[in-house]
Amino acid sequence: MRNSYDIAVVGGGLLGSAIAWGLGRIGQRVCVLDEGDIAKRASRANFALVWVQSKGLGMPAYTGWTMQASDTWPQLAAELREQTGLDVCFQRNGGFHLALGEDELEQRQALMKRLHNQPGAVDYKMELLDRGQVAKMLPHIGPEVSGGSFSPYDGHVNSLRTFRALHTGMVKFGVDYRPEHPVSDIKYEQGEFRLTSPKGEIRAAKIVLAAGNANQTLAPMVGLEAPMGPTRGQIVVTERTMPFLPHPLSTLRQTDEGTVMIGDSKEEMLDDTVLNLPISSVMADRAQRMFPLLGRLNVVRSWSGIRVMPKDGFPIYEQSETCPGAFVTCCHSGVTLAPNHAFEIAPMVAAGALDTKKLAAFSAKRFRKTDVRTSGYY
Amino acid sequence: MFKRFESDSRKAVEIFVDGRPVMAREGDTVSAALLASGLDVRRKTAVSGAPRLPYCMMGVCFDCLVTIDGMGNRQGCLVPVRPGMQVEIQKGKREIGR
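Above: the input entities. Below: the structure tokens describing the complete assembly.
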């Protein structure tokens, strides 16, 4: 392998591999510098929703960016299948957020109203459905379900297979994938970046930082900033069962191969090698109240993972002013936004400049203001 | 394929496999009874539908998954037969609610 590239992508998770795949697709000479198997890898721990509803409260531009991704997912899935033979099982079949009891339904309605009232937000076609309407679409709901919100743009995917397809695909495009290359230092000298790793120095004309929460440390090396606020999430998985759930929920979905995933906890604790069982049991209890039949299934796996999370919950896409050719990319929704990273961000990086018309809202300069508004949802 | 020892003098226990009566012996596991039944007791796996029979007979491999008295995904090799037990060969994934 060579040691000098057009572009070095730091991070080989869903975000880094989507950008690297997108760069390889347009003929760039790219390497991906990744950590090893012990990396805290959100790409292997996530919930696999391609999710639209409720995202973007506090940043209307994020609603349009999310919708664009949802609209382009079919293209990404088709191209990956064509190139790698892997079916990532993308489904945009509409998704629910279910409420247990009247209070939760009222809270949901209030959230929808605030989202809807934002100037410049894209219409998610979110509807608040009562219990009877939900029951028509989700016949197995339990007696405590009071209703829920539905957006036809929500969907889900097999995210592990997506991850594999992006890696298989980028290598086919000629991208050099280099695991066990954690980057400890980056120098910018005479228009070239020098990246230090335990396996030697890599040189590149441009770099993309896509190292998840580690971007916070790497970005300042090239005149960028990426304030992060990671959280931990837990997931519980049941044994495989016949298809019973025709739509994904924000907290529960049935995978293409039949397992039921129960998720959505959010914790401050950042150790991903242990589980907080009381939290798992609350998640399982809520799932069982939504679908009592789940109570018959055995749990076969559970895990915790660390979310990549910019401080205010919204993506960061930024280019360096002091080190031209350095870009930082961070977001929580590496699954949902994968098509944007492959088809939008990658060509901008190749061209050497982000399109500020499209991406101005996602600049990290927003963190310099004192009153950063948070999404309240990732 | 499997034959019982002629000297096996344990008491007979009648179970039902997909509704058909099968004579097992007291102390058999469901998997042992199925293998000795002479019937085609191959299950189908949950994802690809590949045929499988009980394999390890000690609770490790999960290839003996079977529906017993209406409950899916039981490990047949760990469950002793009882008179009148209803066993169904599972074709694919467990059904929700079973």
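Note for the figure: The interface with chain A takes residues 46-47, 71-73, 92-98 of chain B (CB under 8 Å).
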